[in-house]
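Protein modeling request. Please complete all fields; requests missing the sequence field cannot be processed.
Requester role: graduate student
Desired output: 3D structure, token encoding
Chains: 1
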Amino acid sequence: MFKDPHCDICQGIHSDIDDYHVIYENDVIIAVLEKHSVTTGHTLIIPKEHSQGLFSLYPETMDSLMYVMRRVAVALENEFEPEGFSIFHTTSTFIQWTDHTHVHLIPRYEDDSIGLSLHTKELSNTELKQIKERLSEWLESTV
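Delivered output (143 residues):
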């Protein structure tokens, strides 16, 4: 299993595990409560092997991550009864504090005051068609 010696998460989950509030763990994934929590039950779902984003994970690791996320979400639903969930992931240290892949599973409550502001732009049918053609062509050529 690859560990990056410069990664805080790698160092933590492979040595200082007692400092983490682990709620679930298997051979591939660890789920820990977020110390700087947005809401009650805010959980980080973290692959144990170092990788830099969801899209660089091995398919088996991605499957395990999704399984653990679902399992934790069900536990959160049963214990805290959130209204729903927000799932958050970014792929750059420009946006987050580490490049180690992790997913935030954030239970949402009616009074949680979490906001998400996305500035949207309505695309024309021509723009949508061009994007669709480019992506479809690429996806079909890489099967």
